[in-house]
Design goal:
Strand content: 25-35%
Oligomer: single chain
CATH class of the largest domain: Alpha Beta
Order of helices and strands: EEEHEEEHHHEHEHEEHHEEEEEEEEEEH
Number of helices: 9
CATH architecture of the largest domain: 3-Layer(aba) Sandwich
Shape: globular
Structural class: alpha+beta
Largest sheet: 6 strands, mixed
Number of domains: 2
């Protein structure tokens, strides 16, 4: 980790957080460059919201240090930090109209009223709420209230904007439009955004850089394309997008065996005969004739997904394949599949399937976040 902290908007150095004997964060190191869109991604309870609260000053670490713009903010209260937070539940003042909600922070700072009017107008223009100044927030839709909350945050011109699952309560269409709005806002403002979500689609669509979290640790970080195409382990592969994950054996550099066949791959540097897993994305599987197939599968179920059909298939070993295609087939059809070397990603095997499956089941039950 670099010691030149002033080049970053936010730095966490060796940060740990405990609640009683429960270690929520485990020696987190994190550097956020100025002017980028970052996402903390993971299931409930992984610690992503705790990181946000440490940056905001709502919590203090038990170990480690938090820096904002190169300054250690360990003794700086939340209201003195150059950050603002947009919450999932909006946290608007119900007795105030839109203008008064957005202007509140500037009023507290005793800003000149003419400047307040100018800045509120700019902020509302940015979130497409020009003309809503006198509207009571109780009369607004969820999407409109969220935009008011964003305007209230950006009007203070923070160095860092923290967003704690701000879109989770919105319907799908509105959520997608808000994704575009937030991405455009970040580009226009040029400040650092830190976005917390458990939705991998949001993370992939919006982020410059993603931190994938599990059990209080950052397990992988990088640009969205790297996280999606090169997951470090089964947990990341399953959490980021849909995957076919198969037990495999490394035969040699660029050679891996699974489903009873040796395939060319793009990975090297793994010991010969080492137990590994391979991940193959459903959209990367090519359907071919049975005679030309690497593997023959039988279609058990077909799910219409709008822009593609999802085929659920089984091979001779009863492995359940998921394949995305625009071609039309019937349940019960035998089809051939072929997989190119660049679409086979080899991962080291590091955890028991039992432990992995238990954690995925726990996530599916929607436990509260940490």
């Amino acid at each position: 980790m670099s010691e030149n902290f002033d080049k970053y908007s936010v730095v966490l150095k060796g940060v740990s957080k405990f609640y009683d004997d429960d270690e929520i964060l485990k020696s987190i190191d994190l550097e956020l460059e100025k002017g980028k869109f970052y996402t903390l991604l993971g299931p409930s309870g992984c610690g992503k919201t705790t990181i946000l609260n440490l940056i905001a000053g709502f919590l203090e670490p038990n170990k480690g240090e938090v820096y904002i713009n190169g300054k250690n903010v360990g003794n700086v209260p939340a209201n003195k930090r150059t950050v603002n937070t947009v919450f999932q539940n909006y946290s608007l003042f119900p007795h105030m109209n839109v203008y008064d909600n957005v202007a509140f922070g500037l009023e507290v700072k005793k800003t000149d009223k003419k400047i307040i009017r100018e800045e509120v107008k700019k902020a509302l223009d940015m979130v497409n709420l020009s003309g809503f100044e006198k509207r009571e927030v109780s009369q607004m839709s969820g999407g409109q209230m969220q935009r008011v909350a964003i305007a209230r945050a950006i009007v203070n011109k923070p160095d860092v904007l923290l967003l704690d699952e701000p879109l989770s309560a919105l319907d799908m269409k509105l959520r997608k439009s808000m994704q575009v709005l937030l991405r455009d806002l970040q580009w226009e403002l040029g400040i650092t955004f830190v976005f917390v979500t458990h939705d991998q689609e949001e993370a992939l669509a919006m982020s410059d850089w993603i931190f994938v979290m599990d059990k209080g640790k950052i397990v992988q970080q990088g640009p969205p394309t790297d996280i999606y195409d090169e997951p470090i382990n089964r947990y990341v592969a399953e959490f980021i997008g849909e995957s076919n994950i198969l037990k495999a054996r490394m035969v040699d550099d660029y050679k891996v065996e699974f489903s009873g066949k040796v395939f060319d791959c793009s990975d090297a540097g793994i010991a010969k005969d080492e137990r590994v897993e391979v991940v193959i994305r459903p959209e990367d599987i090519k359907i071919v004739s049975v005679n030309d197939a690497d593997i023959v599968v039988n279609i058990d179920n077909i799910l219409f997904r709008g822009v593609f059909n999802e085929l659920i298939c089984f091979d001779s070993s009863d492995f359940r394949w998921k394949i995305h295609t625009t071609e039309v087939f019937e349940e019960g059809d035998d089809i051939g599949i072929s997989i190119e070397a660049d679409n086979i990603h080899v991962m080291r095997y590091n955890e028991s399937e039992d432990d992995f499956d238990k954690r995925i089941e726990k996530y599916a039950q929607g436990e509260s976040d940490g």
